[in-house]
Amino acid sequence: MARTIRVNVNGQDYLEEHVEPRLLLVHFLRDRLALTGTHVGCDSTNCGACTVLFNGNAIKSCTLLAVRADGARITTIEGLSREGKLHPLQEGFWETHGLQCGYCTPGMILSGVQLLERYPDPSEEVVRRELEGNLCRCTGYQNIVAAVLWAAKRLKNQGAK
Amino acid sequence: MAEAIIGQSIKRLEDPKFITGTATYVDDISLPGMVYAAFVRSPHAHARVRAVDVTEALKHPKAADALIGIEALKLANPMPVYSYREAAAVKKPEYRCLATDRVRFVGQPVAVVAARDRYSADDVAELVSVDYEPLEALMDPEKSLQPDALRLHEHLDSNVGLYITREGGDMGGAYNEADFVFKKRFRMHRHTGTPIETRGCIAQYNSGTGELTLICSTQVPHILKSHFAEILNFPELHIRVIAPDVGGGFGNKLQVPPEYVAVCLLAMKIRRPVKWIETRRESLMAFVHARDQIHDVEIPMKKDGTILGIKSRMIVDAGGYLDARISGPSLGAGMWLPGPYKMKGYRVDIDVVMTNKCPYGAYRGFGSQMGTLVIERAVDLIARDLKTDPVELRRKNLIETLPYKTVTGHEYDSGDYHAALNKALELVDYPTLRKEQERLRKEGRHIGIGVAMAVEGAGWNTYTAAMAQTYVPTLDYATVTTRMDTSGNVKVLIGDVGCGTGHATTAAQVASDALGLAVENIEVVEGDTAVTPYDSGTRAARFSAIVLPAVAASGRSLKGKVARVAAHLLEASEEDVEISEGKAFVRGTPNRNLPVSRVARVAYSEVATLPREIPAGLEATESFKAPVSGLCITWPYSIHVPVVEVDIETGVVKFLRYVIVHDCGVEVNPRIVEGQVVGGTAQGIGGTILEELVYDDNGQLLTTSFMDYLLPTATDIPSFEVCHLQTAAPQIPGGYKGMGEGGCVYTYAAVVNAIADAIEPLGVEVTSTPLSPSQVLKLLREARGA
Known about the structure:
The complex is a heterodimer.
Chain A: E1 3-9, E2 12-19, H1 25-32, E3 51-54, E4 57-60, E5 73-75, H2 88-95, H3 105-118, H4 124-130, H5 142-160
Chain B: H1 15-20, E1 35-41, E2 47-53, H2 55-59, E3 63-68, H3 69-75, E4 102-103, E5 109-115, H4 118-126, E6 129-134, H5 141-144, E7 160-169, H6 171-177, E8 180-188, E9 200-206, E10 211-216, H7 221-232, E11 239-242, H8 258-270, E12 274-277, H9 280-286, E13 293-301, E14 309-319, H10 327-335, E15 345-354, H11 368-386, H12 390-397, E16 404-405, E17 411-412, H13 417-428, H14 430-442, E18 446-449, E19 452-455, E20 477-484, E21 490-494, H15 503-515, E22 522-526, H16 543-570, E23 577-580, E24 583-586, E25 589-595, H17 596-604, E26 619-625, E27 637-646, E28 653-663, H18 670-689, E29 721-725, H19 744-759, H20 773-785
Parallel strand pairs in B: 1-12, 10-11, 14-15, 21-22, 28-29
Antiparallel strand pairs in B: 1-5, 2-4, 2-6, 3-5, 7-15, 8-13, 9-10, 9-12, 13-14, 16-17, 18-27, 19-27, 20-21, 20-26, 23-24, 24-25, 27-28
């Protein structure tokens, strides 16, 4: 039976009716809320293109049912920059050429946000390990790692100010 | 004078949309009244289709309509086949967008349905019933070749879909001079590009205007337009193909997808826009497969280590049908066999063989990685037999001076292969590394040093009319339009597709240089056939060598037009007007100047102030035609030196270092170039040690998700040390060579050589891929058993 769910996405409250129980969160975000920055790459929780922050945790929205998001607080790539100012991770990806086709990028950036919350001053090894759940086919990861390290430094400097 | 923009690693202009989630890929687009398509696909590798029944499916409350093979048969012509001159007379397998009476691989589309939403489309597809009569599956190309093998396409004389042969130089002389002939079988396994964005399309037919619009993930929108006109018997005039942002292509998206044809037919039938987005499972089953080749190689040699020639009898496992791009990677592998070495002759005989697998198509490298693997592995094995260092054997045979005419008939253009090799060896400190390897071996650690080099070839002329049947031109060219608006900003219109390759930035840099305007004032538009000039698309690393000179030419032409208007306004002669930093000024008297925006305003609006002979508006279209008529247009090259450690207990390969020296001519944006080099190399590593498309004996694909088809993650891929050499391409204005195939050409050979170097002292001989942990362990077990 279709249900009504309440979610907060990127700071905005939504009351959505007729949510089919089988509707995946990623399709709810994309098709119902028109937040198309969250992508589908593998359908099986492997590639991480669909990564969003769910109550603060990076999760893969392609294998979570939308009804499970009832009452949740979600951040997608569209909600990451504040007042038109890019998040340091977004800046980092741009500065270091951390993306090519851009398809995996939103998921990479959101995984990066969680990574830097857990490890504010990560080594390259930690960055690589923590990004293992996000696949990129274009970059060979080198500049993605550089982007996260760039953002870590930026966040540290911002904190010091 | 402003600082030169060419050669600067500026940040990519296209990035803001990608990092904020506002890029537009196919699945991000919705049209009013749009319905969703789902395909019914064969669960059998080989079967007769007795009947397809959509009655129950159409009763579903959300069903819109359906289309089956025998209906499509009347509406559309077969899919195109790429055919070489020798093959023009050969009968070809007939490939239909939806199967009619036979299916020849698991995943082949049999019917397509449409419904009001994504999930209902899958429900409707499940209600379609298909009556199959399973047939024996041919899964081994060598068995397919046997005279008594079941015929996969009854109207063909055998299971050879295409036979290609090429010969150059004096192979007979090479054998005559030989002291011995090195013979070996090499094999590369089946895998593919797997862009993270799968295929997808939206087809919309407007019966009032007669226009068919296909928005789709592709690298070749203009070529698709031409093909679709042919396949659909539809006026090309009324077809518009739009490639929005494309989430990776890697050559796979050169395909002319049967699914897109079926979706167009459905959209025309039901007069509503139809969207289809491929699932990953579908993509692994039915998007192009690649690489799978066997080479039986003979290399006539002199005792002193001189390579005299190379001959290969090749078997390409084409799958159930011939993809439009099939002969490229087949011929490519053959033509790359001589590599960067001097030799007297070469010959290839290629059987492109039909089996019950997914059709074989293009993937980054287009065969060159296989040719490179063969010659570079062979050089290492010959060095082992001759008890000499593999680097010394390379040095002995490496081409000395450029330009050099090869036995394949190509003219390698510029650079210094010896210097590049020396540079790479210096960067890894080769002599010290060899000693270290020896020391560690005594401690029971298995370190391997791999060296591989190749000359890559960028751009691809098809050079015969038969080969140009798939609209890849016989002589490559690009046409670019540069248009200034009324406020003095410029749009550059290009008919290819930047699918992660940074075209929008690189082209803007070249246009900026040509026009004397800042990159911020320039916007590059790609991928829409209604807006951009005809172009053969993003393929064969042609962008830098072919498209960029056209960008520069049209930029200069527009600059001339701006100067003409400015000259009139500044009361100077046209030759004395210069444009720099957004201003038009009289040479020598920079105070006499006008902003370009003012010039544009006059050219478009205050037209009466201009003399009659000066045309209104500011726009220029120019073409650049390849100055070289051989197969490839420019010849970038690289040396890869990976250093690995193999754990002989687990078979796991760890990279200790990975050094790359490459030369792709003048680099417009070195950071973008390096991104391509590194990305291509990572893809090659995945292809060498992880990825494999595995079929069982009955033709079921066992690797249908990323849980089974393993892409490399950030922990599998090392950091790369990249050294850029820049020898200008002598025949290309600007000196660019192109390098989009990137590291993918060299990696297989380099990594296989490195792993072999680590484990061959244990009695192993490495002649095939993949070198996944289980495969490495298998080799080691066999060696112990022997």
